[in-house]
Please model this.
Amino acid sequence: MASHPRNRNLPHLPRRLAIKACASGVLLCAFGFDAPAWAQQPLALSTAINRAGRLRALSQRIAKAYAEMVLDVMPDRAQNVMATALGIVKTNLTELGRAGFSADMAGLLNVCVADAGRLSGLVAGAPAAARLADVNKAAEQLLASADRLTGALENRGKSSAKIVNIAGRQRMLSQRMAKSFMLIEAGQDAAPLRKQLDTARGEFTAGLGALEAAPVSTASIKQDLQQARTQWMFYQSALDGKGRATARRDVATTSERMLEIMDNLTSGYDAALKELLGSMAYPAVQYAAL
Model:
C-alpha cells in the first residue's frame, strides 16, 4: 500500500508513528470530510490553538442553542445558531486534521472528532426536553477533549501563545454561562448547573482582566477589550434576570454578542503574534515533526 504523501516527507518519523498520524484523517472522512481537504498545508501553531480552542466554545454553543429550542426561545434563530456552530466544528476539525499531527496529537484529535460526531447525532431531529441531559453530557465530553488538545498544542509552543488560549477560553465561557442558564430554565438539575454558572462567571471576569494586562496589544485589540467590558455589564444583568419575562431572550442575544467580541479578540491575538514573532517563530510549525 502506498504511503500518504505527507508521511513520505517525514523520514525522521518511524513508520509506526507515521501511520498513526494519519488516523485523524480516517476519522475525519468518517465524520463527513474530504481527504483532499485534510491533506492541505499545515497551520501556524497559534492558529491551531485558536481552532482547537474554538471547539470548546462550539460545544457549549450547540448545547445552548438546543436548550433554547426546547424552551422556545427564538427557536428559528436558535436553529440557525446550532446549524452554524455544527458547520464551524466540521471546518475547524478539517483544518486541524490537515496539520499533519504526530501520533500523540493525532490521538487527541481523534477523540475530538468522535465526541463531535456524538454531539451532532444527539441534536439531530426535533428538539426534545428528554434529550437535554444527554446533549449536555456530550457537549461536556467535547469540551474536555478539545481542552486537552488545546492545552497540548499550547505546551508545544512558546509561552506567548498562551494569550491565544486565554482569549479562546473566554469564548467558551461566554457560551457555558448561557448554556447553564438555559438548562436551569428548562428544569435540569439546578444545583450543579448553578455552581457551573457561578464558576464560569468568576473565570470570565478573571480572564478579561488577564487579557487587559497582557503585553501583546494593538489598537484593534484595545477596542475589542473595551467592547467586551461594556458587553459584560449587559450580559451579567441578563444572567441575573431569572424570572423576568425577557431574561431568556436577553441571555440568548447577549451571549452571542459576547462570543462575537471574544472571537474577534482571539483572532486579533493570533494575528498579533504572527506579526510579532513570525509564523515560523514557533518550533516545529509542521506538527508531524513534534
Residues 1-40, 279-290 have pLDDT under 50 and may be disordered.
